[in-house]
């Protein structure tokens, strides 16, 4: 009996009514709007370096806001995270293309970026009148202790 049921099911699988499929980009979903919202690379290449940096910063903060909404279970449009991530990638690509045109290697680029962030941090500390001192090395401390012990033992 099991064999007959299986065969009956097997025969009916091919006889199912055809599935209607929607034409691409005609659905009422919001992803259509997301695809239209993405900017073309030509428009991004016309922006200045400062504008590129500002847009990268803006998109990254928007991603963080959306992630916070997601974590706190507030309403948000999940496709917007993808849109902003793509925009950041496009902006950084344009920025890197300009560096390649100038002959800047990847290592030099990252080092310059790191040094710029460090300089910005130092300026912020300086404006706030905060002085950060490095801890003295342990080697110097041990040398002072040994010198003090030697001086104490001589007396």
Automatic annotation (TrEMBL):
Membrane-crossing segments per the record: none
Alphabetic keyword roster: Ribonucleoprotein, Ribosomal protein
Presence of the UniProt keyword Signal in the record: no
One Gene Ontology biological process: translation
Pfam entry (one): Ribosomal_L29
InterPro entries according to UniProt: Ribosomal_protein_uL29, Ribosomal_uL29, Ribosomal_uL29_sf
MF-aspect GO terms: structural constituent of ribosome
Gene3D superfamilies xrefs: 1.10.287.310
One GO CC term, this protein: cytosolic large ribosomal subunit
Entry's family note: Belongs to the universal ribosomal protein uL29 family.
Protein name (Swiss-Prot/TrEMBL): Large ribosomal subunit protein uL29c
Taxonomic source organism: Chloropicon primus
Lineage: Eukaryota, Viridiplantae, Chlorophyta, Chloropicophyceae, Chloropicales
């Amino acid at each position: 009996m099991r064999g007959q049921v299986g065969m009956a099911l097997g025969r009916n699988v091919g006889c199912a009514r055809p599935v209607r499929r929607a034409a691409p980009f005609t659905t009422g979903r919001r992803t259509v709007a997301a695809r239209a919202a993405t900017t073309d690379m030509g428009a991004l290449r016309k922006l200045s370096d400062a504008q590129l940096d500002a847009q990268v910063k803006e998109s990254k903060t928007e991603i963080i806001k959306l992630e916070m909404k997601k974590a706190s279970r507030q309403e948000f449009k999940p496709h917007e995270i993808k849109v902003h991530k793509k925009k950041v990638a496009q902006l950084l690509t344009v920025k890197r293309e300009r560096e390649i045109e100038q002959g800047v290697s990847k290592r030099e680029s990252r080092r310059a970026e790191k040094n710029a962030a460090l300089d910005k941090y130092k300026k912020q500390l300086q404006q706030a009148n905060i002085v950060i001192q490095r801890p003295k090395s342990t080697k110097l401390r041990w040398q002072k202790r040994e010198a003090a012990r030697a001086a104490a033992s001589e007396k």
